[in-house]
């Protein structure tokens, strides 16, 4: 079952259908829905089911588990952008009495607060939230498993605290804040805290026999911000578009970029984690999004910004089907078969001769680099030969540039001129770049040997 098939080529369409058919069969899922978004619209959607004559579609609800955390993170970033909180604030400043020490909002968002992975028994995902009415019931007697800020340690209680933070600052329930601040502005009318028909039922499939067991669909209560939501493939692709470009009604483009910046060192072999978003690399591309699971359901949502493609997979089975992996593979099928056609090269709209004079080869000591002029008076520093440090720089109103990535992120690049106005050197966080290696007559720290360069015989 597919829709919008004209948006992908027949061979791509068949490859996508084949992949989800194999996933549903091998993962023994009662049903599976998948969809792909490309360049602003749904390019393909498909479903597989074990029920003859009936299949879910992109408007059928499934439970999305921990993808809920990304929504909670958006609500927290909104508070920061409105000046109501700071990410470096200790949680206790806004939510006193939790017993979580001095953990910060930032650490909670990136799972580096050192809190436990799960709430105390009984298993919170399969029991009513009414068993844990207070934060103390979620955190237990020993909330802290590791020193705050020292490592990434995924924590469901941590996102419970963030949901309670939203409620404390907003003065409304997490669910109400979610509906009015995210779901309604983005038109996500099929994303809800409880199931709304048409929706799938959750199932467990026996590991050694082809028989099924119904899974309970519990209301998670105070832990809802960690995994409560039900959604559809169509709604999650709308969310994917927002996470790619931002939407000023919800969160700016710069803030959603911040969400997908790694926030803490990941465990060996693990993906990175930003602020409510997982970041994974492979096959020459970087994906961001989130996986999700609750008893009876698995989900995966991945986005490739560079190719402007997103993919989602939802299935109603407890285990056995790696939804996040399949979603990444669907994305890869589209990107590999139908790579994005780049926009034509165009020259800059205008030329600034003073900036143009800065381009070309510079030297940090004996390391050669090139400086290239980009749009909006930006600069790109690139090591000559591919070895060394480089970065993109954005222009500021004070006439300097600020590094945007890697080693030079946040560092200031400025032009240092002689008394006659000519350029002496570039200063990048105290590093001096000259036109020639250790150029004589230029303000190089430590000075330049007056005897100059020499050979062995000298």
From TrEMBL:
SUPFAM superfamilies, sorted: beta-lactamase/transpeptidase-like
Q: Which residues form the DUF7586 domain?
A: 351-435
Ranges where the Beta-lactamase-related domain occurs: 24-329
Entry protein name: Beta-lactamase
Biological source species: Streptomyces griseus subsp. griseus (strain JCM 4626 / CBS 651.72 / NBRC 13350 / KCC S-0626 / ISP 5235)
